[in-house]
Amino acid sequence: MVFTSYYLVLLLSISSYCIGQTSPQPKALILPVTKDSSTLQYITQISQRTPLVPIKLTIHLGGQTLWVDCENGYVSSTYRPARCGSAQCTIAKVNTCGNCTTAPKIGCNNNACYNTPENPFIKTLYDGGEINEDVLSIQSTDGSNPGEFVKISSFIFTCVPTFLTEGLASGVKGTAGLGRHQIALPSQLARIFSFPRKFAVCLSSSTQSSGVIFFGDGPYMMLPNIDVSKDLIFTPLITNPFGTGSVPFLNESSSEYFIGVKSIRVNGKPVTINKKLLSIDKRGNGGTKISTGSPYSILESSIYDVVTKAFIDELSNVTRAAAVAPFETCFSSKSVGSSRAGPAVPAIDLVLQTTRVYWRIFGANSMVKVSQDVICLGFVNGGLKPTTSIVIGGYQLEDNLLQFDLARSTLGFSSSLLFRQTTCANFNFTSKA
């Protein structure tokens, strides 16, 4: 096979990009994640630029890229725009090139390639996100303790104008995309450091203590010396052939994470659901996705109705309370007992590929304390004909280890870590490896 000189140069560029980018070679990487008490977003911090500047970012589980506000105070001696036809544009899978309508500056350069970053919290896309490279620093780990910070000299990210940060938590300058895309953090870090294309998310239920995201394989150790990667339950990740973000008509595969929920049980009893809603149709509608873009799980209206009715029937001896927005199903907490896994209420099972494989949601992840005397079922009515029938939101993910294996397209999940006598706040960030 004969390559033109252009493709030979491109291949060499990609090869040079993939090696020699860092110091030293870690086994895995970690990010601390805190829950913002005001927005309920999950926040991390990464150092970027030269000189290094700590940048707060909101976690976007299905996001395609790490995007940052470059319009307001971005200063770096190592910033480089990705030029049309470059290896960086090829990795980013973009072929949109353009020139600036103003004088070139950081985030707007001539002969640069652009993508379409999303802010899921205000359901907004920006179709002029410039692809760039800059230095990025992230902490290594042996799975038990934090290690040295490693520096990446050419990390691909996206520049956006300030308006796209609307709706993000105070002080946050962008989002950290963890989705199924080549320039999202998981794939990019795996390529740079030559470790497995796996990452694990463990969100803390506390706004005072940090959870953790691991990039790379386990062990994932939590105090007191518990490897929470053991005993995971596995289910296939499903590719939605259509984008499902703010503008789903982009006609590209979704970078978000879908799983195949087949049915739902409440207290072990199946509820009757229109099964068509649980499948992804030819337009990308339906199915079940996992998302940090929603603080609580969202159910299509008919699914919400049957699940909440069954839940109320199973708690017929518990006093009801008035609805508290955004929740419709609330109870007096005085008449609900407690258990190791939160309020003693019926478990909700998301049944997956067989009846023996299910994601069990216990009281700690199903019930939200809204006042001293009232708790509410932490699911939101998504109305009729939403793009996605079931969205598993942040509250239902807390204290549950989720391992995403991108190479094998599988999700490993633990259900509640409370039964293993630990939580996602128990990674030892204070002792160096």
Automatic annotation (TrEMBL):
The keyword Transmembrane helix does not apply. InterPro entries: Aspartic_peptidase_A1 (IPR001461), PEPTIDASE_A1 (IPR033121), Peptidase_aspartic_dom_sf (IPR021109), TAXi_C (IPR032799), TAXi_N (IPR032861), Xylanase_inhibitor_I-like (IPR033868). Keywords: Signal. Belongs to the peptidase A1 family. It comes from Datura stramonium. The gene is GIP2_1. This is GLC7-interacting protein 2. Residues 1-20 form the signal peptide. The keyword Signal applies. PROSITE patterns: PEPTIDASE_A1 (PS51767). Residues 42-414 form the Peptidase A1 domain. SUPFAM superfamilies: Acid proteases.
